């Protein structure tokens, strides 16, 4: 009696390796797939390169020296960001703020450029990005809700930006802030002295 031949089944390749080899042969033997693969590899390389090589983006310009000064509406007008130093000032509720940090809002081409170098109070209160060329706007016709809104904006500006001074009414005299500056420097000197002792 002959023993029936037992066929040993061929061990199938693991699924993953057959998938990979199929993929590779698909890519290598089809020029379209090869081209697409090259394009994908080049694009991925470019994306990764741009992500990791941009270590130093343009350094921000050094902050401008602080100014402390009361101004008339006419004086304020020049600080709309078009000067070479790019300084932008905005007045809110009778106070002038240095909003140069927010140049992208108030500088030339910004969404709120109409407020740059201007008294923005009325525009902010009435939710309209416009400013008038009036000599001085006393805001006396605004209702109490609008005035509350002006005050809220003023508080927000105080928190975010440096105070420059007061917006002068016609005939009003500017405050002399040089005493204040001197005091500040003296205080700074004293603290320095204390530290050294
Ligand atoms: C569709 C209407 C508006 C949209 C979508 C809008 C959007 C914005 C956004 C997203 C910011 C914050 C930007 C940031 O901090 O990065 C902002 C800030 C501001 N918006 Fe508007 N805004 C609109 C209308 C107005 C109007 C009508 C006014 C003026 C009356 C105004 C005045 C301001 C001011 C003063 C700031 C503060 C900028 C700063 O931080 O100094 N916005 N707005």
From TrEMBL:
Biased composition (Basic and acidic residues): 187-197
Transmembrane spans: 27-48
PANTHER family attached to this UniProt entry: IP06960P-RELATED, MEMBRANE-ASSOCIATED PROGESTERONE RECEPTOR COMPONENT-RELATED
Region named Disordered: 168-197
Taxonomic source organism: Eumeta variegata (Bagworm moth)
Top-rank taxon: Eukaryota
Keywords noted in UniProt: Membrane, Receptor, Transmembrane, Transmembrane helix
Pfam family, one: Cyt-b5
Gene Ontology cellular component list: endoplasmic reticulum; membrane
Listed name of the protein: Membrane-associated progesterone receptor component 2
Positions of the Cytochrome b5 heme-binding domain: 71-168
Family membership noted in the UniProt record: Belongs to the cytochrome b5 family. MAPR subfamily.
């Amino acid at each position: 009696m002959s023993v029936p031949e037992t066929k040993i089944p061929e061990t199938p390749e693991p699924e993953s390796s057959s998938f990979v080899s199929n993929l590779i042969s698909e890519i290598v033997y089809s020029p379209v797939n090869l081209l697409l693969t090259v394009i994908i590899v080049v694009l991925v390389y470019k994306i990764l390169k741009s992500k990791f090589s941009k270590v130093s983006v343009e350094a921000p310009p050094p902050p401008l020296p602080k100014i402390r000064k009361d101004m008339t509406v006419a004086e304020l007008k020049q600080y709309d960001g078009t000067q070479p130093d790019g300084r932008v000032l905005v007045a809110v509720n009778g106070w002038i703020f240095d909003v140069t940090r927010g140049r992208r809002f108030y500088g030339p081409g910004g969404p709120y450029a109409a407020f740059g170098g201007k008294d923005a109070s009325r525009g902010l209160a009435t939710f309209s990005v416009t400013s008038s060329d009036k000599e001085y706007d006393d805001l006396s016709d605004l209702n109490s809700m609008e005035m509350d809104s002006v005050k809220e904006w003023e508080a927000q500006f105080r928190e975010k930006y440096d105070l420059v001074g007061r917006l002068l009414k016609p005939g009003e005299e500017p405050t002399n802030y040089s005493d204040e500056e001197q005091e500040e420097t003296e205080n700074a000197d004293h603290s320095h002295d204390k530290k050294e002792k």
